[in-house]
Design goal:
Beta-galactosidase, Chain A, domain 5; 427 residues; alpha+beta; 26 strands; six-stranded antiparallel beta sheet
């Protein structure tokens, strides 16, 4: 009888323990950082392992990810770990699988599956709220305190530093010289920039770290570049699947070294100068002579560079177009062979040659634009006529007139199949 009582009491204790034990947390670690995730998918700890100092802010929740599902922002309902996968559940049986890896330098998170991918508009990593506020590196995604730094790094080109505050993927430009209150970091009324500057963002409680990725399976029309109706085209890159970020926390003096280690560990570009990473190589900050040399004047350019005690010679304008980057014939009558001969001659004198290039736009005189425009050129919008131009006495209207509304914008060119028409309009 006494044995039955003991068994009964033991079962009660087991049932009580099973019902009252705390949620199973997921603990992830690097050499310097310990991160804890709750079973509801939120960060609950960011700890400097060497000091035990906690840096996660409790001012707001810090979900591992957020989803925009058909216009509704959703955070995870649950999270569990299955070996190297984090399984997250959202509303209406939507689920997400994220692969996690613990590296000495960082933690990496990669989306590997979503069960209703077509319903998701975007995924945001974070924002991760923390108490660090001494130095905020908005673009690089690093925040630094007195002794410890936290950071987020996008690990592929479709994962963007920042948060989708606007449909056109721009972010507020915080220019303290445009306002009287230099402490005003609000977004309201600020100009927009054409790049993403808020992978790290100052907040009253400290700062946040964030990144995001969009599903681009459907065409979107957004306000962008002074156009009210700007078409963001379809682009099938698997959407949020494959989005990948690194999170790290290190002593302040190891921040740059850690970013370099992440590049190497994740097989990202890691350019070097004389065998040293470009971010730390002294040669990366070396002075240079700007001189628009030609095949005929390269000797003089080399002599002037040496006379100035420099090792770098820079040509500011060698191209007659940007896109194909064809050289100006008057400067380099022998084309690329002529430029190579200049470079080789400079190298014999210990001089490195560089040229000015930008690759994010195409000049109007480039073969991609004229005489026959390339079908891959980006467009603000497009439309089709409602009737053939050969049909008599019938109005011909664009089927998408908003793309051609000029009430608030200036349209300078239109492409019609293989023809490009350029003109000026006044709104």
């Amino acid at each position: 009888m006494r044995g039955l009582y003991a068994l009964f009491f033991g079962l009660i204790l087991f049932a009580f323990w099973g019902c009252s034990r705390p949620d199973k947390a997921v603990v992830l670690q690097t050499e310097a950082l310990e991160m804890t995730l709750s079973s509801s998918g939120n960060l609950t700890q960011l700890i400097d392992k060497s000091t035990g100092q906690h840096y996660l802010s409790d001012a707001v929740a810090s979900p591992l990810v957020q989803l925009n599902v058909q216009g509704e922002i959703q955070t995870p309902k649950s999270l569990r770990r299955e070996e190297d996968l984090l399984q997250l559940e959202f509303k209406n049986n939507l689920s997400l699988s994220i692969r996690v890896k613990e590296h000495p330098s960082h933690l990496s998170f990669e989306v590997v599956e979503a069960n209703r991918l077509e319903e998701i508009e975007w995924l945001a990593w974070g924002p991760y709220a923390n108490t660090i506020n001494q130095q905020i590196g908005e673009t690089v995604g690093v925040v630094r305190g007195e002794s410890f730094a936290l950071g987020i790094q996008s690990l592929n080109i479709k994962t963007l530093g920042g948060y989708p505050w606007y449909d056109n993927d721009t972010t507020p430009q915080l220019d303290i010289f445009e306002q009287d209150d230099y402490s005003d970091l609000s977004e309201e009324g600020k100009r927009e920039t054409l790049y993403r500057v808020e992978a790290a963002k100052p907040e009253p409680f400290g700062s946040t770290l964030q990144a995001y990725v969009r599903n681009r399976f459907n065409e979107r029309v957004v306000s962008n570049l002074n156009h009210d109706y700007f078409v963001s085209p379809i682009y099938d890159d698997q959407g949020i699947v494959g989005s990948k970020v690194a999170l790290f926390g290190v002593p302040v003096d190891q921040t740059l070294e850690t970013i370099g280690a992440i590049e190497i560990a994740e097989s990202l570009p890691h350019p070097q100068i004389d065998g040293q990473w470009g971010k730390t190589a002294k040669g990366a900050a070396a002075a240079y002579l700007i001189y628009d040399f030609t095949e005929a004047t390269i000797d003089q350019a080399i002599a002037l560079t040496k006379q100035a005690g420099l090792n770098y010679l820079y040509h500011s304008d060698p191209f007659k177009n940007w896109g194909h980057f064809e050289l100006k014939e008057e400067a380099f009558p022998n084309g690329w062979d002529g430029l190579k001969a200049c470079v080789d001659k400079a190298a014999q004198s210990g001089i490195y040659v560089g040229v000015h290039t930008l690759s994010n736009f195409i000049t109007p005189n480039d073969p991609y634009v004229t005489p026959v425009p390339d079908q891959r050129l980006g467009s603000v919008g497009y439309s089709s006529l409602s009737a053939s131009v050969l049909t008599p006495l019938k109005p011909k209207f664009p089927l998408r007139p908003l793309s051609f509304s000029i009430s608030t914008q200036t349209i300078t060119s239109k492409r019609c199949e293989s023809e490009m028409n350029s003109f000026a309009t006044t709104p």
